[in-house]
Amino acid sequence: NAGVTQTPKFQVLKTGQSMTLQCAQDMNHNSMYWYRQDPGMGLRLIYYSASEGTTDKGEVPNGYNVSRLNKREFSLRLESAAPSQTSVYFCASTPGQKNIQYFGAGTRLSVL
Amino acid sequence: DAKTTQPTSMDCAEGRAANLPCNHSTISGNEYVYWYRQIHSQGPQYIIHGLKNNETNEMASLIITEDRKSSTLILPHATLRDTAVYYCIVRVEAAGNKLTFGGGTRVLVKP
User: What angle do CA A85, A86, A91 make, to 5 degrees?
Assistant: First the structure.
């Protein structure tokens, strides 16, 4: 039982490049989330998906798009990466009513 | 959501109990208190949650005051591996809920 799996673990991009961060959970959870964490800061919600087929903006959605591909997978896309998007990205999932979120190990992204 | 206030940092001696306070004076009747922690470079980890009764699990105990305006997370025998940032979050239970991770308390367990 892997829990929440994020790929890749590390990535370096040049300004203007695009990429997709992948997240998959094997716990049959309904809700999934994408956060970013800048050095020395708390987590900020980018997008979330309350259930399969729905997505909503969080606190800092600009520059990102998401896809809830199916119940297991929730991807985050950077269409044109900017240095301000250098951060650690965490994916999380939760089964439903309770606010117990399970987090992945994170993707460390640097945009040069 | 009710706002929470936590100390910025605290130190604790290894083997001793660590008591982490959280103020949530504007909490409403249906909001739960959740505690998470984040060990350096890792994703946050759920610890415990409660509504009004005290709760205990294998990781910690949660003490909520009778008026529910504050709570304390207790790590009974702190180890060096408990060094982390601890987040207190107040939220209703609902599907697809967003959690707000504020600044938290940076706990350093010293040998």
Answer: 80
Q: Chain A, 63-102: which have a CB under 8 Å from a chain B CB?
A: 88, 90, 92, 94, 96-102
A2 to chain B: which residues are within 8 Å by CB? none
CA–CA min distance B89, chain A (Å): 10
- Give the tokens for residue A55: 């997505």
What is the rounded distance in angstroms from the CA atom of residue A54 to the CA atom of residue B8? 36
Integer Cα distance of B77 and B60 in angstroms: 9
B96 touches chain A (CB under 8 A): yes
Each of the 111 residues of chain B gets a pLDDT tens digit; together they read 668 999 999 999 999 999 999 999 999 888 999 999 999 889 999 999 999 989 999 999 999 999 999 999 999 999 999 999 999 999 887 766 778 888 899 999 999
- Rounded Cα gap, residues B33 and B51, in angstroms: 6
Q: How far is CA B108 from CA A31, A54, A55, B9, in A?
A: 33, 40, 38, 8
Closest CA to A111 of A67, A75, A63: A63
